Structures are given as C-alpha cells and as structure tokens.
Amino acid sequence: MSKQVPLFIGGEFVQSKTDQWIPVTNPATQEVIAQVPCTTDEEMEAAIASAAKTFETWKETPISERARIMLRYQALLKEHQEEIATILCEETGKTFEDGMGDVWRGIEVVEHACNIASLSMGETVENVARKIDSYSYTQPLGVCVGITPFNFPAMIPLWMFPLAIACGNTFILKPSEQDPNTPTRLVELFQQAGAPEGVLQVVHGGKEQVDKLLTHPVTQAISFVGSVAVGEHIYKTGTDHLKRVQAFAGAKNHMVIMPDAQKNHLINNLVGASVGAGGQRCMAISVAVFVGESRKWIPELKEALSKVRPGVWNDKEAAYGPQINPAAKDRILSFIEAGKKEGATCELDGSNCTVEGYPDGNWVGPTLFTNVTTDMSIYKEEIFGPVLCCIEADTIEEAIELINECPYGNGTSIFTASGAAARKFQHEIKVGQVGINVPVPVPLPFFSFTGWRKSFYGDQHAYGKQAIKFYTETKTVTARWFEDDINTGANMTINLK
Known about the structure:
GO terms for molecular function: methylmalonate-semialdehyde dehydrogenase (acylating, NAD) activity. InterPro entries: Ald_DH/histidinol_DH, Ald_DH_C, Ald_DH_N, Aldehyde_DH_dom, MeMal-semiAld_DH. This protein has helices at 41-58, 63-79, 81-92, 96-113, 116-119, 155-166, 181-192, 207-215, 228-240, 263-275, 298-306, 326-341, 377-380, 396-405, 419-428, 464-470; strands at residues 3-4, 7-9, 12-14, 21-25, 32-37, 124-129, 132-140, 143-147, 170-174, 200-202, 219-225, 244-248, 253-257, 285-291, 345-348, 367-370, 387-393, 408-409, 411-415, 433-436, 452-453, 456-457, 472-480. It is of the alpha/beta class. The protein has two domains: 3-250 and 451-479, Aldehyde Dehydrogenase, Chain A, domain 1 (3-Layer(aba) Sandwich); 253-407 and 411-436, Aldehyde Dehydrogenase, Chain A, domain 2 (3-Layer(aba) Sandwich). A hairpin with a 2-residue loop joins strand 6 and strand 7.
C-alpha cells in the first residue's frame, strides 16, 4: 500500500482515522505515490482547539523569539532546498530547476518574516492635544487559515504561515490534496527550527474540510490561492461568517510587444513566460499583444516555441513537466479544439505531444494561436496550460484598452525601448503587477503580491507590509497623565527585590 500522508495536530504527526482517502499520483506515470486523508470532523475540531489554546501563550512570546525561529527556519530551508525540490518535483512533475525556484521564492518570504520586529512597529505622536499623546501598536488576530493550490506547494504555504505565525497568530494549513508531501516536509523542518507545539496544524481533504475552517467561530482570517470559482466561494463564505479573507484567483496575463523592443530578448522571455511550468501558474503570459510592425516577429516566435519540449522532472533538457492530472490535460485539449472551431489559426498544436518512455504522462506541447479575437473562449478563459494566444494592435492605446477591458488584473508586461511608452503603460494599465522588459513581474517579498479586479478578492494582499496588516489588528492608545499626580515626597521607598 502507498504511503499515507499524516495530519499534524498539537505538534505531532498523527495518522488520520478517516475511511476516505484521496490518491496522490505521479503526473508523468499515473503511479499512486501516496494517499491523503479527508480529515474527520473530530480531527478538524482537535486541530482548531489546539491552535486556539496555543494562541493564548504564543501571542505573549517576545517578538525577538519569534524572529529567531524564522531565522533558524530559513537556514534549514536553504540547507534542505534540493531535498525539498526533489520531493516537490516527484509529485508535481515540475522540472528540477523549476522546483528549486518554487522553494527559493518561499525561502525569500521566510527571510522577510525574520524582520518581524521592524515590520510590526506602530506609530506615535506626542502632544496630539495639550499633554495628550497617541500611539498605536499591532496585535495578532488569533487562529488563521491557509488553503493552498497544487502549482506551488512550497512557495505558497511559505507565503502564509511564517508571516502569520511571526505576527503572533497560530495557523492551520490545508494544502492541496494533489501534492501534500512537500508541505509535510516544510512542517517537519519548521518543527526542527524550534516552533512550539500547536502554533501550526496541518489538515487535509476537500470542500467539506475547507468549509469547516471557513465557518468555524474560532478561525479569524483566511488566506487562499486557487481558481476563480473556488476563490469566490472562499471569499463569500468567509466574509459571510465575519472572517478576514484574502483570496487570490484566476488570471489572463498579457504581454505588449512594441516595435522598438529588442527582438531576441523579447522572444526568449515570451517563450519562457508562456509555457514555463507548463503554463500552470497564475502569472503566466497567455496573451501576446503585438503592436504595429512587431507582428512580423510571430513566425520567429513560432520557431522558438517549436523547439521547446516537456519531459520528466530529472530530464535536464526538458523545458517543463506534465500537467498535474488527466483532467487538467483534457481541459487544455478542449480549449485547443474550441479555439480551432472558433476560427483562430493554430500555428503550433501540442495536443498530441508524447514523451518517450512515459506514455501515460499528462503531456501537452507548446501551442500557439494567431488571429485570436476577444470573443473566443481561448481568450476569455484561463487555460492554465502551455497555450499562447496572439492578438495584433495598431497602437499602444489600443493595447492598453484591450487589457483594461479584460476582467482579470493579475499581471501584465510591456517590452519596449521607449521610456515614454513604458511610463504611459504603467500609469494607465488597470493591472496590479506590471513588468517593464520583465515577463513575469512577481514582486519580491518586501513588496506585496498585488493582483487586481477578478484576480483577487479582499483588501490586503499576500506578503510584504500588506500581509502584516492582514494578520494583525491595530490598537490605538490616547493617554494623558496629570502632573499634579507626580509624587516627589522624600519618604518614597523602592523595593528592588
């Protein structure tokens, strides 16, 4: 029998008593490599109770002690980065280089959490009125929850629980049921770093377990990354139950190519941004907008894409791995067929992609469409695969209008040699994360991940200063002390014992 993934409750790994298990499969072979439990109601209550009880002591832990745990944790993550990446690749199918990047981007957020003392500082104003001072400071919320997706099983959990716990909260993680071994290893190292029992719990399952966390009276804040449909459900259900919610949802990211862009640099970046990670990332470029004469470069883009091939995780020549499961592959293939029927020109078709020695893998090859219009499903929907749609525009104004009419606002980029064009684009575009000659503009952790519109539901975004605000409450004190209360008597005694 394949490995049974444990729960993590009260500082201990425990085997679930459930009779419902979800298989974890290798996406290159369909081999079942583990079984994930659907956590029972009693186990869910135990995890929530443990988190609530631990919060009462953890919130009183000096902030410097919390920071030292994060310092030890980031050191352990760096020491074990290759090991974590290997676990990650074996269950997601990502290439090893991509897996290493997944882990490293999470480590960067943990490094940011090491600065929690500076990040948590409040504000002070003396003499807001005569001999009255005001000052504010932050306090943790309580039990926080993270619900994470399959595509970044190291990075996205590390977006969440280190910062939340460093702020003085306790945390319950519900990772994707499709690749649970990676977060399990992250938790083992967190425990090794000296995290007290009960500050972090891990439960597994599906909608039933998620809804329990969304509606339970003890939980205070919910962080989520995933699809639009689930994101909407998370946000509505959580806020209906008076929780704080940050829900990162879908995307349709455009790259604008100006005629003055450096062609070779542009093509290399566009290839990687569109089919890298098999297109299974919310910041992938899925629409290329060629402005003016830049449309002449499409044949060269096609040639570059035709040289890209997927493969297994330890194939150093592979550009990306398989799709996460057969259903994801079938969904992508259905979009490719729909694009053909709707009148787009399929310049490069990855539908029948095969990888030698792995006939059962969820393979989809690089796919390129031209003559795409905004009413086509391949333009309107997030395909989440290695499919790039090309649209042509006559002016930068037309390109900006096109992007601003798209309901999503996660990321976008422009490639140009013109500072004026770049400035116009970054100012007028209604998208939260903008790249200028940078294809995938994911901010480093001292900023925040700032998707807009239908790509995000909530107020405060992930990591950076906004995450500190999300995971804490601000308390403001206004104080006055009367000088005639000062005791200057000579008979005052002070007990120094």
